[in-house]
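Researcher: For the record, we're logging two predictions in this thread. I'll number them. Prediction 1 follows.
Model: Prediction 1, sequence and structure:
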Amino acid sequence: MKTTPETPPETTPRRPPSRTFVCAAALAAPLVLTSCSGANHPPTRGGPSVLATPGGAPIAGIEVHALDERPRLTLVNRDGDPAPAIAVAFATDPGPATAAALSALVEARLATAGFETRVHADRTGFRVEWLVDNTTRIAPFFAALVRSMRDPVVANGPETPLVTRRLLALRKTPLDAPELAPIAACTGRLGLSPSEPAPDPAAPTFAGELEGQRREGLHAGRASIAAVGPASFGALVAKALEASEGWPVGEPAADPFPTADTVASYVAPPQSAPRGQVTLAVRLGDALGAVATAERLAAPGSPLHARLGSLPEAFHAVEVVGVARARGGCVSVTIEPETRIDAASLERAAARAAAITRHEIRLESAAPANAAVAMRQILSAADPRDAASRAAWWDLTTPVPNAPPRLAVALALPPRATPAPGSSGRTFAAELDSAWTKTNEPAVERRASVERGQGELWALVASPCGVVDEGATDAGATALAMLAAAASRDPNAGVALEPWVGPDGVGLVAHAAPRDEHETPVELARRVGDAAARALSPVALTPIALTEARTSALAHIERTTGRGGVAFETLASALVPEHPSWLDPLGVYTRVSGAGLEGTRLRLRTLLEGPLRLAVLANADAAQAAEVAQAVDRWLVPRSQARSCPTPTRGAPRTGPLTARLARDAGLAQALVAAPMPAVSASGHDLALFVALALGGEGGLLEAALPPSNGVRATARIVGTHQAAALVIDVRAPSDLLASAVNDVRALLGRLSRSGLGAPEFSRAAALASRRDTESRADPRRRLIQLWSGRPQTPRETPTPQALAAFLATSLAENALLVVEAHPDP
């Protein structure tokens, strides 16, 4: 933005995809306090430029020249611009008025010398940009620049009108509240705080004050020059700078660090932050890291976006700022809720969202950064003046090793709201402190086993609540959410995701092999854990993924329960009224077919707020399993007080014969003959599974009672969860044969109830159970699920004939049976 007398110059944000704005490599402002631990000792300009590789060599296309008693010079060699450009960056003392006044002073003096420039000012610095119209004027430009820096300020000098207009314009752009001053001090926003004094150009002492600021801030120690253009132009600039004389010299800018974090809240002005808004700014010792962090935070699909959108009161980032400062850098993120939040709940919800944002800043800033981020910022500028301006400022910045990060947070309460009674912002501060503490606490229950040498690492993240809280209106919603989450996986992650819809939990299985010989076990663990937890984010869910999941779920329901799931829905509603998914966690056809995107996202949010458990089969060591857990925790912390699984009541089952109608083109009629069984993991459930093996399959009792040659076929299976279970015999037959087939099944069950299994049937079922148990233990999925469930991985014991006979006598008695008959519409 070009500076005008009426509008104070501002940084210009770069708009990436999404609702987030990024302003990277902008001028910055210092925080107003001084830091301890030696962080504030001013560095010398003798250190290496950040525009160099770790070995000290310049990066491609960019050269840095250090000259005695002159500003350092950065040359960006590139062709194709309509004209080359020179920029000069200055780091001044803290305070927007100082930067505004000195920038106007230099601009006015250069204009008097015949040089039209563009000036950008920030809270502790400014940049002067000149589009070079004639290369013979380079040396005169440097001479004019030296004079503008060196000549004393006099009262009512020729530059006074421009300085006055700039300071008056500065007063017209105040910060919304004094609580924003520490954030503006970090990011470099130019506005004045309501409590910050503004100098009066008409005061008799003003010229003397400005002269002191000139001596302190306008010298080679606080300046850097950059030139953008062809190599021949760069050579002319370097020669002219070396030949120039009379540069004032001095020490680099102190740009102090704050000594403490600040947290505050205020009521926003009318028309500002109608839903509330939180801004966080973190001062870091590394400018490259700060800007790189901002780029990662603002990227579409970043963990920050997903984590904020997964909250019960979802938030989103509206601005992400990465700032290179004279010393170190600053990262700032502004977030706001997706919808209005009740005033009584806003401070707590905002604190949790702010803790997530701070956590992401901490994690992303821990990643190493290099000069590539500065190179991108410089070379991506289309205007050569912008490229030169960025290069000059980047060269001016200096890292501050081991400087402790400092945080400034401000909550803007909507104009209609006020802090909680007696709070004055203390509620937000206390809630933020509590939420931040919880970011370091484990979010999931952990179970791990090490299987060294296996080809893949396996993990299961799941809710032990399963479908316990599903009712008649949302039966199947949780399973559908898991199917959709698996379908939303990032194909670039190289991690296979599978939905797990089990009798005692619902979640995602993730597994992967190392990408190559260079990926370490810890890196593999981090990749698998990140992929699993990321997929559970409601933000990751897309309409395409939901459509794919719904199609898969409905196909499974029809395949296992019959046309449209009609007969099974009738049965489930009779055996477990109000909770049909207790019999089949995949739910019922009619409810799954009508599930929408927002409802599915809400189900994921509900699942993430409840208890979660992680099981890991590591293929290296225990540290690998711990890394998976940390990767998963990243997406879940800070957790509010996790609710326990609900314990809903179970209504009395319905009795008597039941009927249902199938679609006219169903072909065969269907009957379900069911008997309630002990719930999964309850005593007697293994006996129920044994009975189903005896009844079903090739050579089973059902095949003998209903030969397929008669046009009738029947299958047996145990359905259910920890809440309820049943033996279901599914009979398919022409309508005129269905009644007799049902009678044959009743007779078979009656015989088993009275006489038990014969020796051949018992031996066959025992052999099937042993074979399935062996096959199950060979499958890492089954071992993983057993680890998650806490079930022993030892072979199941074969029941005794006596125990089985006693079980059959009660569970298959005639009064225990429930029959549903479904015929196609005529």
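Researcher: Logged. Prediction 2.
Model: Prediction 2, sequence and structure:
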Amino acid sequence: MIKILMVEDTPTDAELALRELKRGGIQHQSRRVETEKELRYELIDFKPDVVLSDFSMPHFDGLSALKVVRQEMPDTPFIFVSGRIGEELAIESLKLGASDYVIKTNLSRLPSAVARAMEHVEQRDARRRIESELLESNLMFRTFMENLPGAAFIKDKDGRYLYGNHGLDKAFGVEKGFSIGKLDTELIPFQVAHKLREMETRVLDANTALQEIEVMSMPTGVTYWLSTKFPLLGENNNSRHIGGIAIEVTERMKVEQDLLLRTRAIEACVNPIVIVDTAAPGMPLIYVNGAFETITGYTSEEAIGRNCRFLQGTDTDQPELGKLRAAIREQRPASVLLRNYHKDGSMFLNELYIAPVSETVDGSGAGHFVGVLYDVTQIKRYQEDLEHQANYDTLTGLANRNLLNERTQQALIQARRHDQFLSLVFIDLDNFKLVNDSMGHGAGDELIANVGSRLQTCIRDGDTVARIGGDEFVLLLTNQNPGDSNLTVMQRIQRELVKPMLIRGQELVVTCSMGIARFPDDGEDSESLLANADAAMYRAKSNGRNNFQFYTKEMNATTGERLSLESDLWHAMANEELFLVYQPQIDFRDGSVIGMEALIRWQHPKRGLISPMEFIPMAECNGLIIPIGIWVLETACKHNLQLQKEGLPPIRVAVNLSARQIGERDFVQSVKDVIDATGLDPSCLELEVTESMVMHNVEEVVVILNSLNEMGIQISLDDFGTGFSSLAYLKRFPIDRLKIDQSFIFNCDSDAGDAIIAQTIIALAHGLKIKVIAEGIEKPEHFAFLKENGCDEGQGYFISRPLAFKDLRELLIARQKPH
């Protein structure tokens, strides 16, 4: 039913029109108005579906009514129903918005006109709804596309952009809408555009959607895009366009690559790494890396799903386990040391580090723990070894100086607390250097180990034997009473050490010198007690060795003198307190002087002349022997060259070497430098080495002596017959002379044994084409014996005392001709 508003001044005409509508099947409600005011009111109150109006009325006209209706209800159909209307007015009314006009004399056409007008309204409303829906759909589409997290686009089959959202413009770095109508080659580098088009071609060929990671290598950098492209199907399911969405995943790719790198790093880690789900019942392992499998022997399949405690086996009574459980319960990191077991049952020490893994942004709610296992078995053993090495002597297994000091400190605390006494006994082996030099360091080490074992048998449980270096030992005797004299212990040590030892096939008898210092009489701390025991030991050495001495305060003075003398020796060279004397060497055939031995002396400004036997051992210990040795060599060469420049016949000068000198790496070069600097003919220089020195390291010494010999320098073997050298080695050395030790010369005229030894050495040397020189010729009988037995050369007080350089020159001038 429609609502009809009649603008009509004649009620009968209105009734006729309405009756015709009813006859035409149009059901309606109606109202009639005659004035503009009534019209405006009914338009608001009645809201008619259609307005029928007369054209000419006394108080109102149709065109005015049309204007009012178009103002108030512009979409409502307006039909003129009038007696007469000209063609021009009809056209004008249609232009003004009238839907139709019907002549009152032809009312039969009114129902169809109203029906057409209402149909037109329905079509118009339907079209408007469709347009509105399309507009809304388009708006929704654009809103959707613009708010996608990336680039969205539509292309035609040729690849031209028909649509692109803001994300597309941003991806290309262009203004809004710039890409529309353009190909990729117009927007991005050709190589990149080619790859994009290649994917689109596959989409069109397959007529299906594809998703790939596309790489955009732009001048501004490389970006990665997760691209989904799909055909937009038209009629007959033909692909006419291509749609696509591309989301930049550069950061995600970086995160994934970082995650992959971390995963691979964890897998490559040499330490086992595990992850435990602490929120699950039993807190099972959910991940183990390859190192876990390698070190424990369990595969990941065997480990995952089990609690870590299976690595402890039955060894569950471990204090650190409580610390581990507390850390998990309190959600905090921890480090523990556990005994774990490999699959084969062998134990390893596991230094385990655990930390909670947060599963929320704020760092709370850790449901997992990560653990890193460190197999520290070898490290702990190494630390134990280091600790043992730090406190125990490697050779003997005895306490070392460090542990001795610690135990002495503890013993002193106990002694003070309980009014007890303790003693330190300083022990030094007698003549140990002779064993080292003659039999080698291996034999010396074996001897030291034997002595250490014997000393341990001489003390009580609770006392300590320590080796503090070389051939020095210290005993710590604790819990002593005032009446304990230590005499019994000293005698027991002497009896034990004097028993022969079989070292490398030789029986050796060892003696020692011992010094005793006692707390509290001889010192209040470990340092003073050890120093005073050392001073007492030196007194025992001075008293002929193989004895023991108890410390007395007077010993400190002797020790002080020794330290003072050593200090003065450092300044002796700079102060020109050292000088050389020369002992002439003669040829037994004619008595001519054919050489001289350079001997060092020290003129101390306060103590006077000091024997080399006193200061040379000091120099060897503190290293001064190296610069002193170079000075002796330079001075002797300069003096010899000076004699030749004064017209005296060339003779050789013999210079003694020490073991410390010959052991220097650049020793040969230093000798060459002296020869070059002084200009002395190398054949006029003879270097003396002792028998024990060359036997210390045969192979190395052979190389050194050969190098010196190749330079033209002569080599003399001093003290021959006093050591344990092998004759097999003797022929390997480039020896020019053997010097018979003076100990065999002293009684050669009265002792048959010494005479035979001297004769044997002479015969041996001559058999090896080596000359023989004897030292210590003190009387005519010595001279006669040696000359009779074919000794080549000699020196000694019978021939000449050591002379100052000035006196030597005068002697050589006086003896230019043989007597």
